[in-house]
Amino acid sequence: MKKHQSAAGIKKAWLHCVLAGLAVLAIAVIITPKFPADSAGMSPGYGAPVIAFEMARSVADLHAVFGTPDDPERARRIAMMDDGNIWDFPFMIAYGLFIALFLRAAGKASGNSLWYLLAMLGIVAGAADAIENNILLGLTADLEAANDIGLLAYPVWTKFFSIMITGVAGGIVVATQGRHFWRILGVVAAASALLVLVSFYDPATYGALLGLGVTICWIIMLVFAITRWRQAAPNSAR
Prior knowledge:
Structural class: mainly alpha
Largest sheet: none
Order of helices and strands: HHHHHHHHHH
Strand content: under 5%
Number of helices: 10
């Protein structure tokens, strides 16, 4: 089903997306140094300890991130991880809205209701992230008990696969609603989102690709949203 939307309405929808995207960028700058940069022996393929923590499935995995009880750096790593995960709550709200508002704006610009439906996955991703965060904060409260570690995979998979699907959708929007080099960037965005599959296939080797792929995808989506907002009429990307 397609609905007519005014140019002003479409422009406003892209503006809302841009504001959410800039909030994601600002919070990302704040949150990144709050997470620990070192671990007690995780595989370097994870890239960052927070990714290894999200992928942890046993107490041994937690020890690889934070250290054993006699590790003098363990308390510092836990404190930093908790700080980062507390800041992650506003981050998940911002990126959930960014995804939802991007696809909502795409729906308004194209009249295609499919984008409105997929926009809901942005909210799903943020909600799954909130559940994941609560589990992670519970784990750092008692690493040896590792309460609910068996449940961790469910919100982690839900979050990242929702991000992947919406990233591919965002790439398709960029490629089909834009022209010339946007078509190439749309393919790059979609392909970057699909790196989630590689990362989950072997996270200890390719886990670092999660953050890289999502970052590339979201930056392309944000730049595209900015250009669309700056244009008065829909479907006129250059």
